[in-house]
Design a protein that fits this description.
By secondary structure, the chain is α/β, with parallel strands linked by helices. The protein contains 24 helices and 21 strands. It has a 7-stranded parallel beta sheet with strand order 11-12-10-13-14-9-15, with helices on both faces. A 6-stranded parallel beta sheet has the order 16-21-20-17-19-18, with helices on both faces. The protein has a 5-stranded mixed barrel with strand order 2-4-5-7-6. Helix 5 crosses helix 6 and helix 9 crosses helix 10. The chain is globular, with a radius of gyration of 31 Å. 38% of the residues are buried.
């Protein structure tokens, strides 16, 4: 029956089949893998131990005839008295008038619901016409859709267990079951649907947590291996002594973390396979200099480099800093949408002729007219800002260029090895020596005047400042500060010597670029902005940031915003204006004032918000696990990943028959083909 359509179950008609399809259940076997999303654990306690409004389970005797009253359309209230020892308890059932005939005086019943200790009343949501000992003490709770009831679904799952559970095949080799003391697949499925005890349920969950994570990590490692096998790289042959001399001449020493990451990247450039690497590093950790060294190595090998960034101003800033580092050694050119006419044509001609070593730009780099002579390395900054197709278009500009993605968004390790498991990941996790951490303070609204005076004092010292607001204009629904109001208020109250600017998402790209140029040139001293300021702006003279209604932002976003200051040699400050009402909000403010380590913050953020919200539901790329939770089960994730790496390195999928079922599952997954050279 396992592979039979669900309509082969006697009670399943066309309508039920349609409802089951909404849950991705089309075969009888699918019912077995539609696991409960939680369990209600029924536990009998004496009445005196129950807390007010807790969900409680009681057992007693029905001592009064049920009374039903109707109100509204299709609404009812049924009540009866239950005797528990010497205490009479009122049981109330809403919209369950049909139970009147099932509750008989003298009958022993088990009821679960919300306890009202003042009224001695239980609002019942689960009812068993039997004693507690006879009722199941662990109740599985399932997701349903459409008109399908939980009772119907449970009945169908019970049928599937009886008819098909023996057909479930084991997919894990015996050594994993033995090493991790986890049950067979058949046993685990039975326990998840019909738990015999808390202990058995725990082991069944452990089994599927490991299986899901192991299978996913195997897929990631498989994709990674296949991508490497299909990608013969453009092996870079260059004079290492010239590169070493360049690194030694830098006006600063590389941190240990930078040296480690640089070696990983240079090994990729020297290797026979195409590089597909993500470089993670907190704001100001020195990713750009590592990219510059890799681009210089590429140029020394006679190949060209490309650096794609999300905005024109960021492209200009990169060209400026790269010219400072490499201007004497390389021909560096800028290409953006603003560069037109003869100048643009001249750049494109020189690029195609191989006269440009390094091209820095925005989306202009992926236009059809942009042709490289021999593209050897593509660096994509803030890679999450570009779509898959845009990244692929640039990568395809060369025959087989190496690709280095960079991001300043600190991604927790658990998400990194899940979302980017098919890539090599390098992490710069220490800051350059001498960089002063940004001092962060959390203040309430009543200190606003002191905050404004602090802004004036900083600007009078020759510095600049940001003020960040969550909304553009006033909202009826949300009583929070907005950029327009704050701009008008500050413009009216600041000394005339202070020029105040306003930036938000409704401005055109050109207007935003112009505002940022004015701010970078210190023509604007105080910039009021929404979160469009978040990524990639480098104004070392900006030393202060004030964030209004800071409790409305996640930790990762607050950290990204704070990263806009502290880029020069002067002490910088971030002031969080917030009055959070929730414990989560207070916790975020506390954590922000205690650490400037982006990776530590990202772990806190992940704990608070969960993985879907961390990346944003639509673009997270995270798998939907049925049992596993990558935050709670991070230890199992690490173990599963190491096991998957070992399986691939040892060629077990191809060489060992015990792994044949796993190989079959992996190769039949449609996502595998999508992720191989997306």
């Amino acid at each position: 029956m396992f592979n039979e359509p669900v309509n082969q179950i006697p009670s399943v008609g066309e309508k039920t089949q349609e409802q089951l399809a909404l849950l991705d259940i089309s075969k009888v076997g699918d019912l077995l893998f539609h696991f409960p999303f939680r369990y209600d654990f029924l536990e009998l306690k004496p009445l005196e131990e129950l807390s007010h409004e807790e969900v409680a389970t009681i057992q007693g005797e029905v001592v009064s005839q049920p009374n039903v009253s109707f109100y509204g359309r299709k609404k009812s209230r049924l009540s009866c008295t239950i005797q528990i020892g010497v205490v009479a308890v009122k049981a109330v059932f809403f919209n369950q008038a049909f139970l009147k005939d099932q509750l008989q005086v003298g009958q022993t019943v088990t009821l679960t619901g919300k306890w009202d200790m003042h009224r001695l009343q239980l609002t019942v949501h689960k009812f068993h016409r039997q004693s507690f000992e006879e009722a199941s003490s662990i109740e599985p709770v399932y997701h349903t859709k459409g008109n399908l009831t939980v009772a119907q679904l449970k009945k169908l799952i019970k049928y599937a267990l009886k008819s098909s559970v023996e057909e479930i095949e084991e997919i894990l080799p015996e050594k994993y079951l033995h090493n991790y003391k986890i049950p067979q697949r058949q046993t685990a499925v039975k326990e998840l649907h019909q738990p015999s005890s808390k202990s058995s349920l725990k082991h069944a969950k452990r089994r599927f947590i490991y299986e899901e994570l192991f299978l996913f990590q195997l897929k990631m490692q498989y994709i990674r291996r296949e991508n490497k096998a299909q990608s013969v790289g453009t092996q870079k042959q260059y004079d290492n002594s010239v590169l070493t001399e360049f690194v030694n001449r830098l006006p600063f020493d590389l941190t240990g973390s930078q040296k480690r990451v640089l070696k990983e990247i240079l090994d990729d450039l020297n290797g026979e396979h195409r590089m597909n690497r993500l470089l993670q590093g907190d704001v100001g950790s020195g990713k750009t200099v590592i990219a510059a060294i890799a681009l210089y190595a590429t140029a020394l090998s006679g190949q060209q480099g490309a650096l794609m960034v999300p905005t024109e101003i960021l492209a200009e800033q990169h060209v400026e800093s790269l010219n400072g580092l490499l201007g004497e050694q390389l021909n560096i050119e800028l290409l953006t949408g603003s560069i037109k006419g003869k100048k643009r044509k001249a750049i494109l001609t020189r690029l195609e002729n191989g006269e440009i070593d390094l091209l820095v730009g925005t989306h202009a780099l992926i236009q059809e007219e942009t042709i490289f002579s021999q593209l050897g390395l593509v660096v994509i900054d803030e890679q999450h800002r570009f779509g898959v197709n845009q990244r692929k278009t640039l990568r395809d500009k060369g025959l087989t260029p190496d690709v280095l993605f960079m991001t300043a968004t600190p991604i927790p390790r658990t998400l990194s090895i899940t979302s980017f498991g098919d890539m090599d990941v390098s992490v710069i996790d220490e800051m350059p020596k001498g960089r002063l951490p940004v001092e962060t303070y959390w203040v309430k609204e009543n200190m606003i005047e002191r905050v404004h005076q602090f802004l004036v004092d900083q600007i009078n010292k020759g510095h600049q400042a940001y003020v960040i607001c969550p909304l553009i204009e006033e909202s009826d629904q949300l009583d929070i500060q907005n950029a327009v109001d704050v701009f008008e208020q500050l413009n009216a109250t600041m000394p005339v010597s202070i020029n105040v600017g306003l930036m938000h998402g409704r401005l055109s790209a050109q207007e935003k670029e112009e505002l940022m140029r004015q701010f970078a040139n210190n023509e604007i001293q105080l910039l009021v902005s929404t979160t469009v300021i978040e990524v990639g702006v480098n104004v070392p003279n900006a030393t202060t940031m004030v964030i209004y209604d800071a409790e409305r932002f996640g930790l990762a976003q607050l950290h990204q915003l704070r990263g806009r200051v502290g880029r020069g040699s002067e002490q910088s400050y971030c002031i969080l204006l917030a009055d959070p009402k929730s414990e989560n909000g207070k916790e975020r403010m506390r954590v922000m004032t205690e650490t400037t380590d982006g990776f530590e913050l990202s772990e806190h953020d992940l704990q608070i918000r969960g993985p879907g919200d961390f990346f944003g539901k639509r673009q997270s790329g995270l798998p939907e696990f049925k049992v596993a939770d990558i935050v709670e089960d991070y230890r199992a994730l690490e173990v599963a990943r190491q096991d998957a790496v070992n399986v691939m390195n040892e060629g077990k999928l191809e060489l060992d028959d015990e792994y044949s079922k796993l190989k079959q599952l992996i190769e039949s997954d449609p996502l595998i083909q999508e992720r191989i050279f997306d």
